[in-house]
Amino acid sequence: MSVAETSPTRAVDLAAKRRTRIVGAILILLGAFLVLVFGDAPGDATFRLSRPRDTWVLPDLIVPAQPFIYIAAALTAFLGARQFLRGGGRWTTLSLGLGLGLAVMAFLVWATAENAFSLTGMLQATMVRAVPIALGGLAAVMCERVAVVNIAVEGMLLAGAFTGALMGSVIGGWGGLLSAVVVGGFFGFILAALVVTYRMDQIIAGVVINLFVLGLTSYVSSQVFADMRHLNNAPVFRSIKIPILGDIPVIGPMLFNQNLFVYGALIMVAVSTYYLFHTRSGLRARAVGEHPRAADTLGIDVYWTRYVHVTIGGMIAGFGGAWFTLGSVGRFDENMTGGRGYIGLAAMIFGRWHPVGALMAALVFGFTDSLQQKLALLNTPIPSEFLAMAPYIATIIVVAGLVGRARAPAADGKPYVKE
Amino acid sequence: MSVNEALDTARDKLLERAAPGRVQFEDLVIVPLFAVVAALMIGALVMLATGVDLATIGRSYVALVVGSVGSVAALSETLVAAVPLVLAALGLAIGFRTGLFNIGAEGQILMGGLAAVIFGFTFANLPFVLLMPLSLLAGAVTGAFYAGIAGWLRAATGAHEVISTIMLNLISYRLLDYMLSLDWVQREGRADPVSRSVPDAAELPKLLEWLDPNLRVHAGVFLMLLAVALVYWLMFRTKLGFEFRASGASPDAARYAGIRASLIIVVAMATAGALAGLAGANQTLGVLGRATPGFSAGIGFDAIAVALMGRSHPVGVLFAGLLFGGLEAGGRQMQVDAGVSIDLIGIIQALIIVFIAAPLLVCAIFPWGFRSDPKGGAQ
Question: Where does the chain cross the membrane (chain B) (predicted)?
Answer without folding.
Answer: 29-49, 61-94, 100-121, 128-149, 215-236, 257-279, 299-324, 344-370
